[in-house]
């Protein structure tokens, strides 16, 4: 499986594309389920955030908001409610 993006964003020395591909490969290897949430619920920037579990997804969402939308007035508790109510599971097939 190959993950494709139209834009490759560089953060802290590792591209977003490489990070995402590594995460997908790790999940496929373990046969685990990833959780995801659409940013439309948080900031309307049309990204999809993914993480291993809801707690980690809350952390990823807060980091996304701090890095990309510093003026967004969302508090951690509200982000947590959105993630827990709107996140969905993604199961990757083993190859």
Describe the structure.
With 95 residues, the chain is of the alpha+beta class. The chain has a domain at 34-95. Helices cover 43% and strands 19% of the residues. It is built from three helices and five strands, in the order ββαββααβ. It has helices at residues 16-30, 54-68, 76-86, and strands at residues 10-11, 14-15, 33-38, 48-51, 88-91. The chain has a three-stranded antiparallel β-sheet, with helices on both faces. The protein has a two-stranded antiparallel sheet with strand order 1-2. A hairpin with a 2-residue loop joins strand 1 and strand 2 (14-15). Helix 2 (54-68) packs across helix 3. The termini are close together.
Distance between the termini: 8 Å
Number of strands: 5
Helix tally equals 3
Kindly report the average pLDDT value. 76
Shape: globular
Low-pLDDT parts are 1-13
List the helices and strands in order. Answer: EEHEEHHE
């Amino acid at each position: 499986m190959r993950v494709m993006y139209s834009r490759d964003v560089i953060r802290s020395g590792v591209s977003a594309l490489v990070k995402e591909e590594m995460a997908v490969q790790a999940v496929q290897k373990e046969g685990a389920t990833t959780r995801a949430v659409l940013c439309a619920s948080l900031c309307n920037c049309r990204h999809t955030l993914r993480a291993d579990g809801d707690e980690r997804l809350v952390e990823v969402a807060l980091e996304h908001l701090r890095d990309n939308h510093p003026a967004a007035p969302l508090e951690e508790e509200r982000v947590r409610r959105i993630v827990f109510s709107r996140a969905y599971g993604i199961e990757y097939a083993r190859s």
